[in-house]
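Field reference: sequence -> structure
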Amino acid sequence: MTRPYTQMSLLERQRVEEGLDRGLSMRRIGELIGRSASTVAREIGRNKTRRTTKALSRRHCAERAGCDVKGLCGDACPHEGRALCSRCAHRQCTNLCARYAFHTTCHRLASPPHVRNGCERRRACRSHGREQQVYDASAADASAKARRSESRSGIDMTPDEAARALGLVKDGLARGLSPYEMTRAYGGELPVSPSTIYRWVDRGYGDAANIELERKVGFKPRKKSAPRRPTAHAGRRAYARFSELPEEARAARAEMDTVVGRKGDGRCVLTLYLAPSHFQFFLLLEEKTEDAVIGAIRQLRKSAGEDLFSRMFPVVVTDNGSEFADERRLARAFTERAGTTRLFYCDVRASEQKGACEKNHSELRQLLPKGSVSFDELVERDMAVCMSHVNSSPRASLCGASPTALFKAMFGEAGRELLDAYGVEEVPGDRLALRPIVLNVERDRRGEGPLRFL
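Structure field:
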């Protein structure tokens, strides 16, 4: 069976050097390390080292026997141009003479492998002169690694192609798109992977900067505060009980939370994340209370219909916020029947237990940055814009599909009617944007005043 090709290791290069020092042929060296003779020859040719051992000397000149050159120093010649330069004791003629020819008659350099390893007279032989070509394993390994690194640096495109690709990256960053979303939005116009875009931005190509990548710089340690008292709820609704459910039931869960605006705002946003489709509803609440939450859920249930609502919310996981404290009314809103449990609460200060919902909030925060806009200025149609853009973003976990497309595929005509009722549309890649300005653009089209961002 043919051995798969791999880069030559440092140990193999050390064996090559040892073989050359012993005077072995390239075929024999190849047999010892399990490589072909041609591979050994290419390795020596590519990575041999030229070492400077001595200054240029007259004795290394091929013309030294019959040299009759005079006056190389011109007017500065101490002998006034009368003596042979090859015999001058004041200056080295080899640094001035255009006729100087390096004397390389060494049989080792003239024949393969063209290195002086194994030569007993390597240090004394005058024929090699200033440059001594040898194979050194450590230097060869470093040279090969540097060459591989160089081959992977820069942009493997023509200048025009690179300029166009970097222009698309800058456009995507301005629209708040992640590298993965850029590759999906621009398609074949940006023929690189998301990891390549991350490297370009990290290296500052096209004046891009890491600060423009939301996920790369958008997280910071949160302030520590005193532990909250857990919301009182029945033991059967604890997260430990949720963890005991069958895997398919846990995978079909929905996660619920609220998002607030500036300090002092009355309104907030109720978020409902559907794990199977990755779709997230953003429902504007007039106030952050139990009644407002239950009213929004009941309205969603009425718009969806009993069958679709039950399919969307087979199991719900929420946190211990005061707006979710009334477990009985909340459970009834989610159509929980006697003898079943569909509503569960996370442990206190364990937001990672509904991490998908929390992570999805980061995209909502790109449209509504925390503390920069008053939620009291928002209207329902602003929520429709947020849902449209956030849920139209392609996801790698969905093989490039968007949550909106998957939601429609999963729930069919009933799902399309529900999205239409909430004003959610699938935004094409060339219009997709996750920046606050998109809200004001849509408000301007509707003839409404702009939101005021700090």
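Note: The longest strand covers residues 254-260.
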